[in-house]
Automatic annotation (TrEMBL):
Pfam families: GerE, Response_reg. InterPro entries: CheY-like_superfamily, Sig_transdc_resp-reg_C-effctor, Sig_transdc_resp-reg_receiver, Tscrpt_reg_LuxR_C, WalR-like. Residues 134-199 form the HTH luxR-type domain. This is Response regulator transcription factor. The lineage of its organism: Bacteria, Bacillati, Actinomycetota, Actinomycetes, Kitasatosporales. Keywords: DNA-binding, Phosphoprotein. It comes from Streptomyces spinosisporus.
Length: 203
């Protein structure tokens, strides 16, 4: 019996997933959660075989939770469900040791088959999402540009970023300007949006 934890914040969708999986022989729902913050504590308590996580959860997003889960409960494999076809999300998911990555509109039979495959140690990645990720290419930003843009995305002003990274405010502004230019963005906010959608910044 494959013991499954479900984390999905939309009540109706979560109940539909639970009902669907419970109908399948060999699959058992052992926990259903609505917040990403509850995933690791619950998994530590009940030790599921597979965690099926929505990518966009309140508290802690699904990919961040998957990375924490890999460290805290390494025997539990994770499968991410996404309605966001952003190529960078797959890169982040693979870096977080996710075993499965599927769109939310996947066929129910395909989802249940994916849970079984993930439980047996296989990796299941939606082919279209994989191709989109390959087509998107690497980040054009340098490590420092990415670091500065990440801090800006978290709401920090250039003066604060400068103090944190031991740089001058002018140097920080230069990095931000360079990032905006390389991403063909209109401004800093647009650059952050582009980099996030490509998976070059954390959400």
């Amino acid at each position: 019996m494959v013991r499954v934890l479900i984390a999905e914040d939309m009540h109706m969708l979560r109940k539909a997933l639970v009902s669907l999986i419970q109908l399948e022989a060999g699959l058992e729902i052992v926990a259903e959660l609505s917040s990403g913050s509850d995933i690791v504590p619950t998994a530590l308590a009940i030790r599921p075989d597979v965690a099926v996580l929505d990518i966009d959860l309140p508290g802690t997003d699904g990919i961040t939770a998957a990375a924490a889960l890999h460290t805290a409960v390494p025997d539990c494999r994770t499968l991410i469900l996404t309605s966001l076809g952003r190529p960078g999300n797959l890169r982040r998911a693979l870096a977080a040791h996710v075993s499965g990555f599927l769109p939310k509109d996947s066929d129910p039979d395909a989802l249940c088959a994916a849970i079984r495959k993930v439980a047996s140690g296989e990796r299941v990645i939606d082919p279209e999402l994989a191709l989109a990720t390959l087509d998107s290419g690497p980040s054009p930003l340098t490590d420092r540009e990415q670091e500065v843009l990440q801090l800006a995305a978290e709401g920090h002003e250039p003066a604060h970023i400068a103090g944190r990274l031991h740089l001058s405010s002018g140097t920080v502004r230069n990095y931000l300007t360079s990032a905006v230019t390389k991403l063909n963005a209109r401004n800093r906010v647009d650059a952050i949006r582009i980099a996030r959608e490509a998976g070059w910044l954390n959400a």
